[in-house]
Amino acid sequence: MFLTFNGTAIVVLINFGIMLWILNRFLFKPIGKILDERSAQIKQELEQSEEHLSQAEADRAEAKRILTQARAESQAAVSRAMDQAEQFKRELELKIRADAETFKAKAQLALESERKAVLDHLRQEASQVAMVGAEKILEDVLDDAMRQRLKQAALLQIQPRDVVRT
Questions:
Q1: What is the 8-class DSSP label of residue 28?
Q2: Is the pLDDT of residue 50 over 70?
Q3: Helix ranges (DSSP H) in the chain
Q4: Domain assignment present for 4
Q5: Under 8 Å CB-to-CB from 124, ≥6 apart: which residues?
Q6: Which domain does 94 fall in, by range?
Q7: How far apart, in whole angstroms, are the C-alpha atoms of residue 51 and residue 46?
Q8: Distance separating alpha carbons of residues 119 and 158, to the nearest angstrom
Q9: Cβ atoms < 10 Å from Cβ of 120
Q10: pTM higher than 0.85 for the full model?
């Protein structure tokens, strides 16, 4: 069992070595380089994806904070508007009541003034009717001077009553 080496085995070994060197130089190294580049590109894209994801999470948190703040501000604005509306309603009710009281007081004064004017007119009419009636009755009995004195006396009696009632 001795091994003998012949020249063919050495040539096969040399051919095998050359083939390995050629495959390594022109196939394995370029494919390894392509695989390394692809691996680096994938790694870079994963890192960018992670950055984008963290940025998206940050943006989402910021949007949620802004939305919460906007809701709080809108709720506060609605609350303020409701308070202002309620205040305006109370002020309007007070103004309407005050205007109604003023109108009522003016109407009462106008009614009282009208009542006094009507009473004065009725008194004057009554005194004139009484004077005419008295003149008719006394026309035959009294002279002009006496009639004049009776008119003045009647007018003097009516005048003080008006002053007392007002």
A1: I
A2: yes
A3: 7-23, 29-138, 144-165
A4: no
A5: none
A6: 9-165
A7: 9
A8: 12
A9: 14
A10: no
Contact 26, 18 (CB under 8 A): no
The verdict on residue 1 lying in a domain is no
Q: What is the pLDDT of residue 65?
A: 95
Burial per residue of 16-52, b for 16 or more beta-carbon CB atoms within 10 angstroms, e otherwise = eeeeeeeeeeeeeeeeeeeeeeeeeeeeeeeeeeeee
Q: In this structure, is residue 86 part of a structural domain?
A: yes
Structure confidence at residue 123 (pLDDT):
84
Number of domains in the chain: 1
The secondary structure of 49-63 as a DSSP string is HHHHHHHHHHHHHHH
Q: What is the pLDDT of residue 166?
A: 44
**Residues 91-147: pLDDT tens digits?**
999 999 999 999 999 999 999 999 999 988 888 888 788 777 777 776 666 677 777
**128 within 8 A of 86, measured Cβ to Cβ:** no
Residue 161: closest CA among 116, 129, 131, 109:
116
For residue 80, tell me if it sits in a domain. Answer: yes
- Which of 127, 118, 135 is CA-nearest to residue 159? 127
End-to-end CA distance of the chain: 162
Provide the strand spans (E) within 53-163.
none
What local confidence, expressed as pLDDT, does residue 36 receive?
Answer: 94
